[in-house]
Fold this protein.
Amino acid sequence: MAPGWIASDVLDAWMRSRAAAEDVSFEEVRDRDVRAVALRRIATEEDVARAVIFLASDAAKAITGATLDVNAGQLFT
């Protein structure tokens, strides 16, 4: 599994540091980043947990050697 950004205090702190470095508001950085994600939201811990449950279920019993991106369509890092 390959989670991308996950909504968390750590992500908020990173966005706040970028906002300070760019001399803009946290909200501006967050909104700009969210607009660049396909689903227009940041993935959550629950999104990752649901993917884990799926992979551990019989529904995924034929999946091997695959990477499951859990990132709401994030195309950047």
Notes: Residues 2-70 form one domain. The two ends are 16 Å apart (CA to CA). The chain has a mean pLDDT of 94.
